[in-house]
Amino acid sequence: MKTMKAAVLHSVNDLRVEEVPRPEPRGTDEVVVRIKSCGICATDYKAIRGIRTNVKFPFIPGHEPAGIVAAVGAGVQHFKEGDEVICQPSGYCGYCAHCRMGDTHYCETAFTTGGDGPEDVWPGAFAEYMRTKEQCLFHKPKGISFDAAALTEPLSGAWKGVVQYSEMAVGDDVVIIGVGSIGLLCLMVAKAAGAGRLIAVDNSAHARANALRFGATHAVDHSDGQGRQRVYEIIPGGPDLVVEAAGPIGAVRLMVDLRRRGTKWNLFGITTHEKFELDGGLTHFLEGRMDASFGTTPRAMQSAIRLMERGLVDPEKIITHRFPLEQMAGALAVMDGANRNKVIIHP
Predict the structure, then answer these.
(1) Which of 183, 232, 263, 308 has the maximum number of C-beta atoms within 10 A of its C-beta?
(2) Mean pLDDT of the chain
(3) Does residue 338 sit in helix, strand or coil?
């Protein structure tokens, strides 16, 4: 039996790099990918640290990969061994009502490789090899590095949230709350889409400096609770769009406080089950629109690849740390800190 190295999560904070069986295609439509790069997502980190509790152990995390096709099932038609590919973590049936409408991330029988959401979780990409389905693969353009390609999935989520769902228009004044890795991608998408004033809100001076470097027109500190006042000093008429990309419930409450009449707001970063309050009458008369965004779809993945191919967004710029698979403990130590953006694993 062939084996490979993989980072296996046995319980909270018990992630071990060990030898496990190397996957092979089981179905005719399945593909095994040799992983070259995989990003660490906040949901991976939350699973490892016990912040996210919907995890069944043992579990191989990692759902932002790019690599090279190593083996294909007998029915695979569009990919062959040696092809450089980008992997979408979420698989889908293609036949349920949701899939027929294009909402493949709502699929009634969805699976995910190393990620969050569906009940059916396949081993992920913090490993030398990963098994998935042909439908989840995209050909990697030659001009895009494996590290950049690994960030297609989070970039696709940023595009889906900012452009497809919240319908940001050219000239819109946009506020991004939380400019870690996903917030920076939302910011870069908004800039590419023609945002007017583009305001980053973050308690971290490191994050605010990065936001200005990647295209924000202003950066606002909310650590003393004065974020709303500072945003309105910059845009007295209030924002056209607010994207919450931070995660903590305090960021959601700030998003609610930033609204004026007609403001669109997108719940993007929060994944934990915490509550916030809305004034019903005020929300009615403000006549804004709330959206949310999770997961990705083939349309969003293809749109993200297009952004990279056209040179409109380069997600590799947000990578601050790279680690070999054997140094997962070091990667997690960096994730524990504040002075980092995207961390990449090289199996």
Answers:
(1) 183
(2) 96
(3) coil
Residues of the chain with CATH 3.90.180.10: 3-150+314-346
Cα separation, 82 vs 213, whole angstroms:
37
Percent above pLDDT 90 for the chain: 95
Residue intervals in the chain for CATH 3.40.50.720 = 156-292
Supply the angle between the helices 249-257 and 227-234 in degrees, to the nearest 10: 40
Instruction: Classify domain 3-150+314-346 at the CATH class level.
Output: alpha beta
Tally the residues of the chain: 347
Could you report the per-residue pLDDT of 50-62, keeping only the tens digit for each?
998 889 999 999 9
**Joined tokens for residue 156:** 């696709």
Structure tokens at 10: 């046995």
CATH 3.30.420.40 holds for 156-292: no
Which 3 state secondary structure label does DSSP give 69? strand
Model-level pTM?
0.95
Q: How far apart are CA 227 and CA 232, in angstroms?
A: 9
pLDDT(187) > 90 = yes
Q: How far are the Cα atoms of 185, 242, 251 from residue 178, in angstroms, in the given order? A: 11, 11, 8
Over residues 151-156, mean pLDDT: 98
**Which whole number is the average pLDDT over 243-251?**
95
Look at the block and give the residue holding tokens 């601050």: 320
Looking at residue 272, its pLDDT comes to: 81
State the residue for tokens 């924002």.
239
